[in-house]
Structure formats: C-alpha cells, structure tokens
Amino acid sequence: MRIATIVGARPQFIKCSSLSKELRKKNEEIIIHTGQHYDENMSNVFFRELKMPKPDYNLNVGSGSQSWQTGEMLIKIEEVLLKEKPEMVLVYGDTNSTLAGALVASKMGIPLAHVEAGLRSYDRSMPEEMNRVLTDHMSNILFAPTRRAVVNLRKEGVVSGVHAVGDVMVDTLTNAKESIKKNESPILDLDLHDCPFIVLTIHRPQNTDNSKNLGSIIAGLGGTKNPIIFPMHPRTKKMMITTGLIKKMPKNFIVIEPVSYFEMIRLMMDSKLVVTDSGGVQKEAFLLGRKCITLRDNTEWPETMVNGNNILVGADTGRIKSALASPWIFKKSRAKPFGCLGASRRMAAIISDC
To answer: pTM, whole model, 2 decimals?
Structure first.
C-alpha cells in the first residue's frame, strides 16, 4: 500500500519514528513535512537522532496565524497528494498539520488514519481540541491510545474503525531510553553541583501569547530554590524578549536552547520534577516515573493524574507555588493506561490488512 504520512511538529516526528519502521516492512511510505516546526532544534535534529528517513517533501510553511498556516498547508498538501496518489493518508496528534492533512484527504476521498484518536480535554478554546475532534470525525481508521479515548469517541457516535492499540510513545520512549543507556545521545553539560533540578517547558499559545499568564508562571516558579532548566521554545523566547520578562527571570532559571528528543528524555530522567504545558511531556514524565506540574486547567491525558502524579495548576502563581511546596511522592501505578510495547506493530498490521 502507498501511504502518505503527514507530520510537522516535534511530537509527530517522535511518534512517526516508531510506526514508520513497521509500516515500511510491507508498505511504501511517503513522508510529507509541512514545516510547521522548522527550527533546527525543533525539526531536523529529530530525524537524525531517531534515525528516521528524510522527508520526501518539505512544504516549508513556517509560522503564522492558525488560519493562515492551515490554509497554506491545505494548498501544498493537496499538490503533493495529487502528484503521489497515495492509497491512504496517515496523520498524528492534534496540530494544524494534522487538521490540514485530514481535510485534504477527506476532500480527495482518500482513506484517513489518525494516530492518537479520541483524546479530549473538553476545552474548545484550545485550537488543539478542535483539531482532534474534527480529525476524528473525518477518519476511517482511528488508533486510540487508551480505553478512555475509545469511550470519548463512543460518546460522539464514532465507533466504526476504532482500534484500541495502546500508545506509540511507549515504543519510542523505550527505544530512546535504551539508546541513552548506550551513550548514543549527547548529554547536556550543566554543572548543577548535584542539586536536584526541575525541567520546564512552555509553548502553548494560551501561555506564550499571554504576557500576564507568562509572568504569573515565572513568578510562581521563582519561589523554589531548585535550579530550573528551561529549554526555551522560539515562540516563548520572542514573547519573553518583547515583554521584558527575560530580564526579570529569577536567578534559579537556567535558560538553554531547545533540546533534542534524547536530551529532553535525559533531562527528565535525571530531574526531580517536570513542569510543562505540553501534553506529550506530561505523558513522558508519567512513563518515566517523574512527578509533573501542568501549567493548564485541563489535560487530554487524565490518565497521568492517577495518585496525584500530575497536578493541574493553570497559570496561577499561588497554585504553582503550592504545588511546588507539596510533599507528594510519585507512586507508580500498577496499571498501564498507555498499554504495552508493540503499538507500532499493531497499527502497522491493521493498516496493511486494509
């Protein structure tokens, strides 16, 4: 089968790396990179590090408003699909690249498969939530990573083509940990004098594009004495500079450039705590057995909140300080809400049988 895989952002490269290897055993795959993430540390490094095939197409869409970016992708993806004539389109997650790929496939009558189907935060103000819902309702094959995702789809009347296969990130993360143990990835050279540190990521528009929220987050995190390693997203950096917050950062912040996937996993493995507004990082922290504070009021991954291992604090200074001061200890769940190894193999088998 000829499959067009559409990716455009860091989390999608990571998920694609495991499934692509399985798909190519029996199928022909064309990788289309929309260019949604185009910075070297947010894009190309992931293909090299995860040993992925280079994209067959890079659409170089770049940044812009939600509507402009999606519109540009629609035009360019359609051109590629008209040329390549795939028998299936495969999309991942909840980005603008996901929605654009789904819309073009649907309009062209090409069967659509969605990896990470059924996730819901039930916050329609988030662009990602709308991308998820719309993509699911256009998909012919829906790969649900958890039981809750299957239930979410059933509530919306989506039952045909739904497959509970587990989470592909379990495969990718397991392989990454093995590579790190073999010293295949560079480790950040940060002299922290053996002091327990916190890893911070901020990239959601609701935080980065809102100077009040961003300032509240920085103020809340400034209340801890632990070093905070902050790989700063380009969008976040731009806002920090524009608002002058970059000059007001507490002394315990260690700002670094965006890191590769292996470097991020190493940071989380060695950290005391993870603070993030990323859905993927919440899940990675859970799988790595790390406590997490999430800078949002909701999450599409409620499974991570079992035993209080992930706490939602929004952008509220007081709630952030309270969570940092909490004596909670990570209690690893005996259950495996994200399934076992082999999600990539199971998905590839379903696609190959179509």
So the answer is: 0.91
Backbone angles phi, psi at 280, to 5 degrees: -65, -40
The CATH classification number of 2-167+339-352 equals 3.40.50.2000
Instruction: Please give the average per-residue pLDDT across 80-97, as a whole number.
Output: 97
Q: Has 33 been annotated as catalytic?
A: no
CATH number assigned to the domain with residue range 198-325, chosen from the 4 options 1.10.1200.10, 3.40.1570.10, 3.40.50.300, 3.40.50.2000 = 3.40.50.2000
Please check whether residue 273 is in contact with residue 193, taking contact to mean a CB–CB distance below 8 angstroms.
no
Spot the catalytic one: 33, 37, 114, 203.
203
**pLDDT, tens only, 273-308:** 999 999 999 999 999 999 999 999 999 999 999 888
Give backbone dihedrals phi and psi of 273, rounded to 5 degrees, phi first.
Answer: -160, 150
Alpha-carbon distance 56 to 77, whole Å? 12
Asked if the domains at 2-167+339-352 and 198-325 fall in one CATH topology, the answer is yes
Please state the three-class secondary structure of the chain as a single string: CEEEEEECCHHHHHHHHHHHHHHCCCCEEEEEECCCCCCHHHCHHHHHHCCCCCCCEECCCCCCCHHHHHHHHHHHHHHHHHHHCCCEEEEECCCHHHHHHHHHHHHHCCCEEEECCCCCCCCCCCHHHHHHHHHHHHCCEEEECCHHHHHHHHHCCCCCCEEECCCHHHHHHHHHHHHHHCCCCCCCCCCCCCCCCEEEECCCHHHHCCHHHHHHHHHHHCCCCCCEEEECCHHHHHHHHHHCHHHHCCCCEEEECCCCHHHHHHHHHHCCEEEECCHHHHHHHHHHCCCEEECCCCCCCHHHHHHHCEEECCCCHHHHHHHHHCCCCCCCCCCCCCCCCCHHHHHHHHHHCC
Tens digit of each residue's pLDDT (9 = 90 or more) over 208-245 = 989 999 999 999 998 888 999 999 988 899 999 999 99
Identify which of 278, 220, 225, 219 has the alpha carbon closest to the alpha carbon of residue 243: 219
**What mean pLDDT do residues 186-194 have?**
63
